[in-house]
C-alpha cells in the first residue's frame, strides 16, 4: 500500500490540537500541494488566510459578531469568541467566484474544497493534524465582513491545525459497497 493511500485511509479529524503549529516551510509546501487541486480553466479560484497568535483573539471577536441572542439554539457570544482557540492555527479557505463562460461558481467552490483537502493531507504528512469546520459562522455576513471578503467570495471552511494531544481510536471505515453503485445497473 502506498504512503498516500495509507495516509488517506488513516485520516481523521482531531478535536484537540496544541502547539506546535506548522512553521513557514511546512506551510509553503502544504499550500503548494493545495494549488494542485483540480482547477477548470486554471482560474485559481482560491485564497487562504492563516491565523495564529493574537490573530486568534481577533478572529474570536469576529465570530462573536455572529451571535444571535434572539435564537435560543444559536451559539452564545462567549462560546463563539473562544472557538478559534481550539487550535494554535486556523487556515480559512476562501473561494473566489469569477465570471467565466465555461466555469460555474460551484466548480470554483469545489476546487477550493479540493485544495483544502490537499492542504490538510499535506499537513498530516508532516505530522500535524487538522479539523475542518464550517457551521453558521462560515456563512454569517458579520464574519464575511470582518474577514474582508468581497461579494464574489465565500468561505469553504476553517481548518483548525496543530499537534494532536490524544491518540484517538481508529474509526471504522465506510464500506464502498454501501455507497457505490454502477450505472446503468446490470
Automatic annotation (TrEMBL):
Family annotation (InterPro entries): NAD(P)H_nitroreductase (IPR052530), Nitroreductase (IPR029479), Nitroreductase-like (IPR000415), YdjA-like (IPR026021)
Top-level taxon in the UniProt lineage: Bacteria
EC number: 1.-.-.-
Residues binding FMN: 11-13, 36, 40, 132-134
Cofactor binding, per record: Binds 1 FMN per subunit.
UniProt protein name: Putative NAD(P)H nitroreductase
PANTHER family hit by this protein: NAD(P)H NITROREDUCTASE YDJA-RELATED
A molecular function (GO) term: oxidoreductase activity
Keyword presence, Cell wall biogenesis/degradation: no
Coiled-coil intervals, chain numbering: none
Domain Nitroreductase: 18-162
Organism: Marinobacter nanhaiticus D15-8W
CC cofactor: FMN
Leader sequence residues: none
Family (UniProt): Belongs to the nitroreductase family.
Protein keywords: Flavoprotein, FMN, NAD, NADP, Oxidoreductase
Pfam families per record: Nitroreductase
Amino acid at each position: 500500500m502506498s504512503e498516500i493511500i495509507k495516509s488517506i485511509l488513516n485520516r481523521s479529524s482531531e478535536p484537540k490540537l496544541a502547539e506546535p503549529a506548522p512553521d513557514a516551510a511546512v506551510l509553503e509546501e502544504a499550500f503548494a500541494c493545495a494549488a494542485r487541486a483540480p482547477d477548470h480553466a486554471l482560474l485559481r479560484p482560491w485564497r487562504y488566510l492563516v491565523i495564529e497568535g493574537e490573530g486568534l483573539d481577533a478572529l474570536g471577536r469576529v465570530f462573536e459578531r455572529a451571535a444571535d441572542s434572539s435564537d435560543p439554539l444559536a451559539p452564545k457570544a462567549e462560546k463563539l469568541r473562544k472557538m478559534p482557540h481550539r487550535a494554535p492555527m486556523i487556515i480559512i479557505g476562501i473561494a473566489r467566484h469569477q465570471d467565466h463562460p465555461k466555469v460555474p461558481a460551484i466548480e470554483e467552490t469545489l476546487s477550493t474544497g479540493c485544495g483544502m483537502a490537499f492542504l490538510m493531507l499535506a499537513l498530516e504528512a508532516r505530522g500535524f493534524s487538522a479539523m475542518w469546520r464550517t457551521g453558521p459562522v462560515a456563512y454569517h455576513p458579520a464574519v464575511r465582513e470582518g474577514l474582508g471578503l468581497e461579494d464574489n467570495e465565500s468561505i469553504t471552511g476553517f481548518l483548525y491545525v496543530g499537534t494532536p494531544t490524544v491518540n484517538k481510536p481508529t474509526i471504522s471505515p465506510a464500506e464502498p459497497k454501501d455507497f457505490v453503485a454502477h450505472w446503468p445497473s446490470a
